[in-house]
Amino acid sequence: MSLEEKIKSLCTKHKISIKKLAAEIMMSDANLYKCFKRESIETKHLEKIASYFGVPVGYFFDEVGEPMGGHVQNANGKNIIQSIGEMQCRQELAAANKKIMELQDKVIRLQEKINK
User: Fold this and answer.
1) Is the dihedral of CA 112, 95, 80, 47 positive or negative?
2) Given its phi and psi angles, is residue 54 left (phi above 0), alpha (psi -120 to 50 degrees) or beta?
3) Rounded to the nearest 5°, which phi and psi values hold at 37?
């Protein structure tokens, strides 16, 4: 299924129009249709769509999608996400790892309180 088909399917399932979805993610419906036409969408918009529908971003990718020079491609070799640079990925990973460590520390402190 293409990116467009997956988004339209979610819209149908949730009974909203493409125009309403576009407004919800702060994008014009014309720009969303352009993304469908070129089979490419910016990360921030795809993340907003995923968040709106409560699905992981990975939902929009075919299983064989692989990172290719800052882009992610679907099974047809079409670019789906643009603008993810290696540096940005590393920064996001570092921030996520830091948050995980903070949460692990918090869990340990809470467990110690419970065991007292």
Assistant:
1) positive
2) left
3) -65, -45
Please give the helix or strand (H or E) that residue 79 lies within, else none. Answer: strand 79-82
Q: End-to-end distance of the chain based on CA atoms, in angstroms?
A: 54
CA angle 62, 53, 8 (to 5 degrees): 60
For the stretch 9-66, pLDDT in tens is 999 999 999 999 999 999 998 999 998 888 888 888 998 998 898 888 888 876 433 3
Which pTM was predicted? 0.54
C-beta separation of 42 from 60 below 8 A? no
DSSP annotation string for 30-49: HHHHHHHHHT-EEHHHHHHH
Token pair listed for 82? 């643009």
Judge contact between 84 and 42, C-beta under 8 A: no
List C-alpha distances in Å: 62 to 3, 59, 82, 90, 115. 9, 8, 16, 23, 46
